[in-house]
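Lecture notes, part 5. Sequence design as translation. It can be helpful to think of inverse folding as translation between two languages: the language of shapes and the language of residues. The source text, in structure tokens, appears below.
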């Protein structure tokens, strides 16, 4: 009798333990599933605008790398007192080029800040993505005056505190025209373009072009963004 009672007690305990383990496993799977769905939403939120930012920069770098008819458009540097007319005409090409570069850097900053622990389709792909990012940063900062951490900084400048997306080109132009410190921070970027106009950094531009293409291919290949068509960039009439 005692043996039968013991078996019943042990059976009840064992059954309860198994049931508890099943419940824990179910809850863990549910949490992981919910986290996975949320991770994919976050990934899509940042991956699509990053792809588009890279696409726009790619088009501009390709245009510059192929040789401008008038490279002097890259030598325009905003000064105190430059009005809106200057930014939308004489200084448009240089200003928008600096913006496109900072815009990609800003989206990379957001990507790294908010989804650094999120997974792509496989864990190892997260590391591969950041390798792509490092390749881009190194490609345009190595051997140039656009230093690595400065490149990060110009992206951060487009991100007011608490912002979940970079400022628009219109706000960027307004900030250059009205904020002396903001304009001074970006002066190095404009000096970088002047050196390109003088025939320097052609090799780095070619490598940077390949690097932004690499980021785009990675995002598409790993289903972070859909396969998108690639229209040519417009608005290059000022070369």
């Amino acid at each position: 009798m005692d043996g039968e009672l013991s078996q019943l007690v042990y059976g009840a305990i064992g059954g309860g333990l198994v049931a508890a383990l099943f419940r824990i496993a179910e809850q863990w799977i549910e949490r992981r599933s919910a986290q996975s769905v949320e991770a994919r939403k976050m990934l899509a939120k940042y991956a699509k605008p990053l792809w588009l930012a890279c696409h726009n920069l790619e088009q501009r770098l390709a245009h510059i790398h192929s040789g401008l008819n008038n490279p002097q458009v890259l030598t325009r540097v905003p000064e105190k007192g430059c009005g809106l007319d200057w930014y939308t005409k004489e200084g448009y090409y240089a200003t928008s080029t600096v913006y496109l570069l900072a815009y990609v850097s800003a989206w990379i900053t957001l990507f790294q800040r908010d989804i650094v622990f999120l997974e792509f389709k496989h864990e190892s792909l997260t590391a591969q993505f950041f390798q792509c990012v490092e390749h881009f940063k190194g490609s345009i900062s190595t051997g140039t005056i656009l230093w690595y951490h400065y490149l990060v900084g110009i992206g951060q400048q487009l991100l007011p505190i608490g912002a979940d997306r970079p400022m628009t080109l219109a706000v960027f132009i307004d900030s250059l025209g009205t904020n002396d410190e903001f304009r001074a921070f970006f002066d190095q970027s404009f000096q970088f373009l002047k050196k390109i106009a003088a025939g320097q950094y052609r090799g780095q531009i070619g490598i940077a072009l390949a690097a932004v293409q690499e980021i785009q291919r990675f995002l598409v290949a790993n289903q972070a963004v859909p396969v998108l068509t690639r229209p040519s960039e417009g608005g290059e009439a000022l070369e």
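The translated text above is only one of many valid answers, since several sequences can fold into similar shapes. Confidence is low (pLDDT under 50) at residues 32-36, 230-239.
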